[in-house]
Amino acid sequence: MLAEDLHRMAAHERAQQLQYDHHIIVCSGTACRSANSEAVRQALEQQVQERSQIGVCTVTNGGCRGLCAAGPMVSVEPAGLLYQGVTPADAGAIVDSLGSAPVPHILCDTSAAFFSKQRALVLEFAGNLDPDRIESYLANGGYDTLLKAVTEMTPTQIRDEIVRSGLRGRGGAGYSTGLKWNTVAKAQSAEKYVICNGDEGDPGAFMNRSEMEDYPFRILEGMTIAAYAVGAQQGYIYVRAEYPLAVSRLKGAIRQSEKLGLLGNGIFGTSFNFNVDIRLGAGAFVCGEETALIASVEGKRGNPRPRPPYPAEHGLWGHPTLINNVETFANIVPIIRNGSEWFAGIGTAKSKGTKVFALSGRIQNTGLVEIPMGMTLREIIYDIGGGIPGGRHFKAVQTGGPSGGCITAQHLDLPMDYEALMQVGTFMGSGGMIVMDDSSCMVDVARYFMEFCMTESCGKCIPCRVGTAQMFDLLDKITRGEATLDDLALLEELADMVRNTSLCGLGQGAPNPVRSTLRYFRDEYLSHIVDKVCPAGVCKMQHREEVLP
Amino acid sequence: MQKLLVPAPSDDKRWRMVTATMRRHGYRRDALIEALHSAQEAFGYLDSQSLQYVARSLNLPLSQVYGVATFYSFFTLKPPGEHTCVICLGTACYIKGAGEIIASIQDHFDLKPGQTTPDDRASLLTARCLGTCGLAPSGVFDGEVVGNLTPENVAERLEEWLDHAG
Amino acid sequence: MTNRVLTLQINGQEVSGREDETILEVAREHDIHIPTLCQLEGLSSIGACRLCLVEVANVPKLLTACITPIQEGMEVHTESERLNHYRRLVIEMLFSEGNHICSVCVSNGHCELQNMAQLLGVDHVHLPYRNPQRRVDASHDRFIFDPNRCILCTRCVRVCDEVEGAHTWDLKARGIQSQVMTDLNQPWGDSTSCTSCGKCVHLCPTGALFEKGKSVAEMSKRREFLPYLTIMRGKHR
Lengths: 549, 166, 237
Description:
The structure holds three protein chains of three kinds. Chain A is α/β, with parallel strands linked by helices. Chain A is 43% helix and 13% strand. Chain A folds into four domains: 103 residues, Glutaredoxin (3-Layer(aba) Sandwich); 204 residues, Rossmann fold; 84 residues, Ubiquitin-like (UB roll); 106 residues, NADH-ubiquinone oxidoreductase 51kDa subunit, iron-sulphur binding domain (de novo design (two linked rop proteins), Up-down Bundle). The mean pLDDT of chain A is 93. Helices cover 43% and strands 11% of the residues of chain B. In chain B, α1 packs antiparallel against α2, α2 runs antiparallel to α3 and α3 packs across α4. By secondary structure, chain C is of the alpha+beta class. Chain C is 24% helix and 15% strand. The chains are: A alpha/beta, B alpha+beta, C alpha+beta. At the A-B interface, α2, β9, β13 and α18 of A face α2, α4, α5 and β4 of B.
């Protein structure tokens, strides 16, 4: 495909869409699907037919609107209406209302803080793209940026743009994306690889799932630009097998892009070649770690190996390999399209751009939100999230998954960026944000995460293999009310040792939930140990009678 | 180097899926995980026949294939029950009571995660996170994602499968 | 291709080594002892046991000596109260993980785990014992595998794959459930790939792999073959 073909296809699709007066878009993400959005779409199609609106109105699939708990979500364009909790029975009313007053009982207030406080950059087009059709992407400027990149820019110019933008890895650690790209670009090798890490393993995180489901083409375009910038010819997307919809969307996107020559040999008539394959994960959290992920792509047990050497120099099959998170790749197109200055204008001094968070747990509005870096936790929880339901009190937010920690009420005004989170003992992680209220027991939460790390430990290094099991036993003992203060001292000793001696990030991070809850909620531990009482009433104490003298 | 192809263990047509996956990857050794995915999709689990076939076709040591198959929790070496119930144990689900659901299944049906009922009617599995935290606590019943689970509505579904009356 | 010679400091002593050498190799060439369990000259290094962790000036993390290449001007410290504390905990973890009862072990007196415990001054284990239930496999004609004494160093797995080329051994499951096993997790005696060469037995640091019918006194292990074999195959390191 050449530039003129791209523009012709995009113009054709736009003209097609203009033929209709109304567009009804039904969210087809995993959450809405499990709330029966397929049946809603069928009902809408049927109603359009029955009310002879064919040619006037079209019904298509769209992406996630973020408000996952209120699904199925249906939007109507160009009126800009959003409906929530739609059932097939509402279909007739929606079709009847086209061009007149909206259906009141299911109408969603899009001026609410949940929508108005967000800044859509990664989640651009707010779900109006049909993730199954490349034409829909092209009509919205899709692949224009790749065209610009490979025909007007040199690889060095692209990398400079990424460095200047200040983009940092969205997988958790926040390493400078541009510097990583430069390392791979400078490595001497005939073969190089680009890997998109879609092994979103943090329990309570579903940003990457949604991004892969809704923006498969955007991710491919970002990867292709990356490949051009670092000199790679082959890419892999490593996706969890637990995300079947994301897998099928990505497969479809690869097939359609290949068909149009947007992947393959001689992209846009240049000498640049790039192919992408999908590799399925198989249920191992540790494979989110770069070196373990590489082992898994090579078909082996997902055992990490010590770094250095880093994958950027010695990666897949020993070749320089660029590994970035799904969301990092999703940021590439907007940066190259709008320029690094524009991107660097969003966010804080050291954390640029936006971050997508998955809000869940004890919060009113569960779902996906995208905010500019630096927004306070209070705004996220109370304005966007709608606060804590049931008149309960906010207690803490867990970020960074099983390697992260909690942020408490005293830090509600903390601006969300990489450094601020590190300061309070947690980290950005991939973006899972689990809200806990006063009905949650922090010791139980620490025990939960330790169990997770114990079962997900690969078993290669001793501190992580044995240490997580020993720490889990101790935490379990505490939640049963059978532990002593000596056990607590041992727990802290092990937490320090496992953190400092484990081979990879999983082990090094495994003690974090314990350390973080001990830092802010030590009194809860002491209640369990000394008074044999669980303040939140979650843990069932076995040895209450021992309190008696 | 051309390698002699290993014949499928039987005439069962499901082997074609497995063979096709390996062929698509040029019988390269790194296709192991993809091949195991196909075998499990075709047969529901990985028995020693599948493991041997994949090992021989890809020229891999048996122990390596077994090691990979048991490393990843997505693979199962035991045949699943007629119906499967997966309860998500992601953080959001846990905070909203997934642990109690598991406990109540254990109490009522004497079924622990990873187990199948003695009559092979139902298996109980857990997932680390389904990514449907908005619907927490959630689960998958025979492939269908279901949200807002409670011990009661889960018991109802399980009873239907197990047909306690009969 | 010639390798440059780099100079660095280990425990305050000026030393030099080739740029492709690891901290551990250079230390050994200068008679500086760094404890190891999983590492063995002639096999690939995996950095799993964590005993060889060392401190390096201006590097916040501890580095794995058996894998980290030396750098010009590096200041390495192989001994400190902190390192020794961690190393003792590693050994305690191994004791707590399996069922290590020296008095009834065939390797008593020539066990690397036992020696290391003595060397590091581990005089008691303050971690709770996990007492796993693991069955001994005596199905092989000449050898016995006792998983209770296995520390998962994977020397058997590596020598079988890298030197013998049989790849009979590998790991099954993961995390605290991991164990070494043969072929499709079948009794060792039924293994179709095992050549009964015995290399795994001789490289096993503990009494997890041993010869049938040998008494404690006879059960010292012979490893001379390994450096010889690897040099002859030109795969040194």
